[in-house]
Design brief:
mainly alpha
Length: 101
């Protein structure tokens, strides 16, 4: 039986399916950020300048979650792992100065 070598491509990142530049996760964060910012600005009876700031804040948060990378991982994954570390039990080993274990 003949064998044909098949190239194997390692998947080391997200698949960019929107124009080859954006992933589904990034599009989702952008859409949710825009929707939250615009929805909050439209629903709250505030001054126009405060509504614009609120809408910009929502868009900036969505863009941060979509594009910012911290320690070579997305900020959403970084915050999730930080939350789990923060909520986990930690063991502290205290010893006096000059004391050997």
């Amino acid at each position: 039986m003949r064998q044909y070598p098949v190239p194997f491509q390692q998947a080391d990142g997200e698949e960019k399916i929107f124009g080859g530049m954006l992933s589904l996760r990034q599009i989702t964060y952008l859409a949710v950020g825009f929707a939250l910012g615009a929805g909050a600005a439209a629903a709250l009876p505030l001054l126009l300048s405060l509504k614009i700031c609120l809408a910009a804040l929502g868009c900036c948060l969505g863009a941060a979650f979509a594009f910012v990378r911290v320690q070579d991982m997305g900020i959403d994954l970084f915050l999730w792992r930080w939350w789990h570390w923060y909520r986990s039990e930690k063991t502290w080993h205290w010893k006096k100065a000059g004391e050997e274990e």
